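Weekly sync, protein design subgroup
Attendees: M.S., D.O., the rotation student, P.L. (late)

Item 1: inverse folding check
M.S. brought a backbone from last month's batch and wanted to see whether the design step gives back something sensible before we order anything. D.O. pointed out we never logged the input encoding, so this time it goes straight into the notes. Structure tokens as presented (220 positions):
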């Protein structure tokens, strides 16, 4: 029986190295970029450091992402895009007539708030990134906008079953995200979410109720 041999490459030290697939390389680079940016910040992190941590060459980094800023956007935006995509799939599997809007809202609020808290420093850096003309550099937000639009349709289907209506579900979602981001950024300044009498779950529930009341949902 013939033995199948996986193609290998040779490192600078002359030792064989298994070739990685495109998806594997991108995953390694995104993880390395996230860790480097989190540890040292955007400006103090070099593409060479990211490539070395990922175990790939610097030219390979540019081949996959084009620039340091593009890699940064992907490292920060991907968790949001993935969460919404997974959320839409889960929501689509639910029976809108049986499920309740508050349940959907709590999952959305809790999930996004955890992402904002976990990536707080990176998000602040991302929001401060500008192109040469002084405009926000958020190319990856195009993918995020498409996910928001798809999610807005899910929200409409759930609230309509309960006999309610949101004037603009897309704006309601974006307002909610602004509220959650602001809350995450204000932690330790305006109030402390890690201290006090309320547990993290209770805080998420309070924020969920706040959002539901803001869009006109009747909380029983």
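Designed sequence read out in the meeting:
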């Amino acid at each position: 029986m013939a033995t199948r041999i996986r193609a290998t490459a040779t490192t600078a030290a002359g030792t064989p190295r298994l070739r990685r697939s495109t998806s594997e390389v991108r995953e390694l680079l995104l993880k390395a970029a996230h860790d480097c940016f989190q540890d040292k910040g955007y400006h103090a992190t070099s593409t060479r450091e990211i490539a070395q941590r990922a175990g790939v060459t610097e030219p390979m980094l540019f081949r996959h992402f084009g620039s340091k800023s593009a890699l940064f956007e992907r490292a920060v935006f991907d968790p949001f895009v993935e969460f919404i995509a997974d959320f839409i799939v889960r929501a689509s599997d639910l029976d809108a007539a049986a499920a309740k809007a508050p349940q959907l809202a709590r999952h959305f609020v809790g999930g996004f708030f955890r992402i904002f808290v976990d990536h707080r420093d990176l998000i602040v850096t991302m929001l401060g990134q500008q192109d040469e003309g002084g405009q926000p550099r958020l190319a990856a937000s195009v993918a995020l906008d498409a996910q928001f639009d798809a999610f807005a349709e899910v929200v409409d289907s759930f609230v309509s079953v309960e006999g309610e209506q949101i004037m603009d579900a897309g704006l309601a979602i974006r307002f909610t995200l602004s509220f959650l981001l602001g809350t995450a950024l204000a932690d330790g300044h305006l109030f402390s979410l890690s201290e006090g009498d309320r547990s993290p779950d209770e805080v998420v529930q309070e924020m969920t109720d706040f959002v539901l009341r803001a869009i006109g949902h009747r909380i029983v």
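Discussion: The longest strand covers residues 8-10. The mean pLDDT is 76.
Action: P.L. to compare against the previous round before Friday.
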